[in-house]
Write the C-alpha cells for this entry.
Amino acid sequence: MLINYLKIALRNLQKQKIFAFINVFGLSVGIACFTLLMLFTGNELSFDKFHKNAANIYRLYINSQSVAQPGTTLNGTDMWSPSGQSFGEGLKQDIPDVVNYVRLQLPWGESLVRAGNKVLPAEVSFADPSLFSVFSFPLKYGSRSAALHYRHDIVLTSSRAKQLFGTDDVVGKTVQIQLGTTYYAFRVSAVAEDVPSNSTIRFDILGSFPFISSYRDDYFTTGNIVHRIVRQTYLELRPGSTLANDPARMDRFTRTFFPAGSFDGFMQAINWHKKELPLTLHLQPLLHIHTDSWLQGSDFEDDGSINPKTIWVLAGIAAGLLLIACINFTTLAIGRSAGRSKEVGVRKVIGAARKQLIFQFFTEALLMSAIAMLLGLLLAVLLLPWFNQLAGRQLNFSLWLKPQTILLLLATMLAVGLLAGSYPALVLSGFKPIAILKNKLKVGGTNFFTRSLVTFQFALSILLIIGTGIILQQTQYLIHKDVGFDKENVIAIDASDVDPGKVFPEFKAELGNYPQITGVTSAVAGLGTGRDLLAYRDKGISVALNIVDPDYIKVMGMQLIAGRNFVPSDAADTVKRVIINETMMRNFGWNEQNAVGQAIKHFRSRTASYVIGVVRNFNFRPLSENITNQAFEVSADKGYTNMYVRTKADDPAKALARVRNAWSAIAPGVPMKYTYLDESINHYYDNEQRWSSIMSWAGGISIFLATLGLLGLATLAAVNRTKEIGVRKVLGASVSQVVGLLSGEFIRLILVAFIIAAPLAWYFMNLWLQGYAARINISWWIFAFAGAGAILVAFITVGSQSVKVARANPVKSLRTE
C-alpha cells in the first residue's frame, strides 16, 4: 500500500514539475541557510570545550583603579613580586585550590624560522611545559612529559612541520628561529595536531617559557627599542573550587604578593587610598573567554572574542529564515492542493475512504519535505567553503552534526511535512464529492492566518534589509572617515627582523632621491595594529606614548594646532620634549594658548618632559572608541621597528618596487614584511564587514523565500477567483484592471509589514550604533528603499500571476457553469 502512495505522490509531483521544484527548492534553501548559520553559532559557543579540564581552567586578569580608566586591565598578567616570584608560582604556593598554572607569551609579529635551506616567517609563542598538562592539545609525535621540557625545546604543529621539513615526523630535528636580530637553535621535542579552530589559545610554533624569560632583554630589544610584552597566566583549579567567586581570598593573596610599600613607586600615578588595593586580581573562566567581549586591555585584544549578542542575533536570523521557508512550503502546498479538489471528488466517488486520502496527502508532503531536507544539507555542504570565507572561520560539519542536531533536523522535516499536508489531508478530504464536482466549494487560503504569515515573512525581510543597509553605511563610514592623518599611499614596514638603528638611516637615504617617494619615517608603536604603548601616567591619566622619528608628524600628515614640530637636535637634547594631542591637552586643563611649555613628569624615570606642540586629534584606535591621550617624543635612537614610506598616488606599483629594491640592498636575505597603512587600519572593521555580508545574503534570501510564499498565496487567490475574473472580462474589464484587483490586497499586506518592521529596525539599529563613538545618523532613504523594494518585488510576483489569469480565455472559466 505504501508503495502505491509513493507512486501516486511521484506522479503528482511530475504533473506539477515547476510548482513542485519551487516548493522543494525554497525549503531546501531555508534548511541550508539554517544549517550554515547554526554551524557558525554552534562553533562560537563550543570554544575550548574540547579540553578535558576546561570547566576548571581560568585566566588571570587584573583591574586597576585608575581615575581615567577605572576597571581596565593592566598590561601583563604575569607580573612579578619584589621577591621575583610570578603570579602563577605565588598562587600555586599560597592557595591550595590552585592545582597548576601556565604562563603563555603571545607572539610579537612574525619571526624568521629556518630549517635546512628553507626559511619562512611564522609567529612564535612561548609557554611553560605545564601547558600540555593543563590543556588537552593532542600530540601527534612525542610525549606530554617531554614537550618543552628543556629550555631550547619547541613544539610544532603538524602543518607547520610539513611546511618546514616536508613531513611531520620530525621529533629531534633542529630549527633555527630569529629572535630580535639573532638566530637561536631549537630542538623539536613534540609535534602537535593542528590547533582546533574553536580554540582561544592558538600556536604554530611554541617555545619554552624558561628560555624566553631568561633571554627576555635580548628578544624584546631590537636596537634600543623594547617591544610590548604580552603575557597571560592560566590556572587549573581543583574541581568544585570557589576561588573564582571569592574576592576576599584573592585580595589576601595580593597583599601577601605585594608587601607594604611595594605599590608606592609603581602605582604612584593612580589615585588610591592606602587602605585599599590599587589593583585587584580576578579569574575569568576559560569557557567564557570567547564571549566575554566586555573584557578589554592590551593582553586581550587578540583573543578574537565575540559579543554574545551577535551569536544570538545570528541564531535568531537562522531560525527566522527556516521559519519563513517552512511557512512558504506550507503556503505553496496549500496553493498546489487548490487545483486538486476535483481529484478528491472523483476518488471519493469511486470508493476512496477519507483516511486513504489523508494518508496520500501526508505521504506527498512528507516525501517533498524529505527531499528538501536532503537537498538542503547537500547545498549547505557545497556552500560551506564560501561561507567559511564570508564568516572568517574554518568550520566543518564534524563539529556540528551531533545526534541532537540530527534529531532537530528530522523533527523539523516531520513538522514541516505534517503542517504542509494537514490542509489538503484534513480539509479537502472532508468535502462532499457532489459539492466538489459541481464547483460549489471555494478552497480556503486567503484567510487571516495565511495573510498573517505573508505579512510576517515580509516584515522580517524588510527588517533584515534595513539592518543590512545601516550596517553597510556604518562600515563605509568607518572605512572612509577622515581619521585625522593621511592614511592613503603609505607603505608600513615591519622592521622587527633587523636592527632598525642601523637599517633605517641607510633605508631613508636610499629612498630620499627617488621622486615617487615623498617621505620616510619610523616609530615604536604601529598604527592600525592595536599595539600602542602605555608609558605615561600623571594625575591618574593614562597616556599612549609613541617614540618617533623627527619627521613622523610631517610624513604622516598630522596637523599641529599649537607650538612646533620636532627637529633632529631634539633627540640629543638632555631636556625631553613631547608633542601631545588635543584630548590630552584638555584632560590636563590646558588650552592652545598655554599648553606649550607645560611640564609632564614621566612616571618611570620621574623626570620632566616639556610640551613643545599640540597635534590635532587623530584616531590611532578604532573609531568605535573615543580618542584617548596620545604623546610623542624623540630619542637618540636612529630608527624604530615600524617604518613608513609615503609615496605618490600616480604609480604605486613602481614606488613599491623601488622600496623593495632599497630594502633588499640594505637588508639582504631578510624578507620585507609590509602592508599598506589604509588596509591595516581597515582591519579594525573586519567584523563589521563580515556582519554586513552575512546580513546582506540573509536579507536577500529572506526576500526570495517570502516571494515564494507570496507566489503560493497569489496562485491560490487566482484559483478561487477564476470565474469572477471571467465574468469581469465578459463585462469589459481590462487586463490592467484585473491585475490591479488581484495585486491590491497583497500590496496592502506589504505596507502593513513595512509599518511593523520600520520602527523595530530603527530601534534595534539605533541601539547597535550606540556602540560606536563615531557613527552615522540613520537616513530615511534606507527605509524608503526597503519598503519600495519589497512592494516592487511583491507587485512583480503577484502581477505575473495576475496577468496570466487576466489573459486567459473567459470561456474556459465559465463553461462549467
